[in-house]
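User
Please review the sequence:
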Amino acid sequence: MTSVELVEVGPRDGLQNEQTLLSVDEKVELITRAVDAGVRRIEAVSFVNPKRVPQMAGAEEVMAAVPRRSDVSYIGLVLNRRGLDRAVTAGVDEVNAVVVSTEEFSRRNQGCSVAEGISAAIDVVRDARAAGMRTTVTVATAFGCPFSGEVEVDWIRQIVADLVDGAAPDEIALADTIGVGVPAQVRALSAAATASAPGIAQRWHFHNTRNTGYANALTALDTGAHALDASIGGFGGCPFAPAATGNIASEDLLYALDRSEVSTGVDMAGLIDAAQWLGGALDKAVPALLGRAGGFPTRP
């Protein structure tokens, strides 16, 4: 592949597990820095209950203040019809619905069974499409679950098939929610998703919890990935899963892509600066490595 979309999820997944709560202005600053660095798809907000995930409060206020450009698409994560109604009112460009692949995690994360999650995602896709919005469904815990253990590839294939039969989204995202995946799983899941959803773009969401996230991302690229999620600075995690830390860092991923001559249109220096700013806002060291080492110097 010669190009891939880098989807910046730092304003959503990067913040949802942090103890420090950023203000609306700080969230808008992070999003603006991503736009200025050349990112053109940004998962900016999550329309979940702020009592459960207080880091995601103020979604409507954030969307009212983000820079609006014709070439920038803002994504809102939604779990149900109420979330979709909020997303439509707030004016996001895309919605990302989520289906958790295992029963216990689904009940802990979304308060519903897997079957109920699939049904809710189908409804969200149908209604969002009617509202003129692009749609993604993310299959979470596709690589493994902290409570149920291994997740069979055939089960993910069936979930994707059910989603496509119900209301085919524009994009299927496969998520390694807890960072347990390896490249062999990426290849198997890509083949399964292609079999169940031929012609539908594949997006991938990796965590580097066990130091396999970047290898997985490059493997997904080899299998034909349309888009790769990453988080500025490598911040992020899931508040409903033990030790689910370490989103792959946007700038570290960008280095690997740039050196592999894969175009994203994103500026590495801009991402490094954004990561340093975010580390200061969160009062935490930046997990990503590129800000410490810098890019490989070009020959004079």
Q: What stands out?
A: Residues 2-293 form a domain with the TIM Barrel fold (CATH 3.20.20.70). The chain has a mean pLDDT of 95.
